[in-house]
Specification:
Layout lengths: L2 E5 L4 E6 L2 E10 L2 E6 L3 E8 L2 E8 L4 E7 L20 E4 L4
Antiparallel strand pairs: 1-2, 2-3, 3-4, 4-5, 5-6, 6-7, 7-8
Length: 97
Amino acid sequence: MPYVVCFRAKGQLEYRRVAEQVRGSWGQVGSAIRFDINGYSEHTGALVGMQMRGVARNEGNGTWQWELARLDDRFLDGEFPEPPPEPMDTNYQSGST
């Protein structure tokens, strides 16, 4: 399911999918970035040009690689955009056995 992550001022984050919106927080030091979504999943990575890439883990110990691409600012508060074919979350591994 496509999603948009909005990095707002003062470390505020919004994670939006077509049917939901939740909050989180984020921080950046140089090109290193860290963000969490609703206290459920922790994402760490790096800003590389106009993309971010990294790894994530959720409360259930699932892990995956993620990539985000910058979208035009008109999508921050408006219509939900059609996602590009890449980047996307990959290699999800469930923490349960």
